[in-house]
Fold this protein.
Amino acid sequence: MGELWNRLTERQKKMLPWLAVILVAGVGMLLVQPASRLEVGGTAREQPPVELQSEAEDTLTRELTAVLNALLGGKRCTVFLTMDRGPALRIAYNVTEEVRTGPEGVVEKRLTSTPVILRSDAERREVPLILEQVEPQVRGVLVVLDAPPDAELRLAVARAVATALQVPMYRIEVAFKK
């Protein structure tokens, strides 16, 4: 280290402590920085995060299992859901379009899009303005019953699932354990 210090010029020797202070301050700011909050995506067409989709799927599965077990009178069923898409939010944006004409007649368009942010002074936080909240869509349901095969029971369970999830009957399959 002494050899490196001797090779530096006087100006570099004076700058080195300042660079060290700036480096320590930068690392300190990165460590003290608050944890980032869940940020909402830019457009409603984006795929929802996997955590949100699986959370919605787990919630629907638990609720449907509880309803069917109450209908059947005990823990006699297992439910499997396949989701087509998870929950999504459509957010309001301020869109600014700027058109410039260059010296040779070249037209340049610039489109700027920023989300509309609502500030809550009481809670000291910012939230985007949500235009629409899209509920998750169920692609298919499989219900496995721990009971002897019975056509009437199968129809009753399929109707209950169709009513609870607003899913057409052709997307529901009821099977019996053997």
About this structure: Residues 2-32 form one domain. The mean pLDDT is 81. The radius of gyration is 30 Å. The CA atoms of residues 32 and 90 lie 32 Å apart.
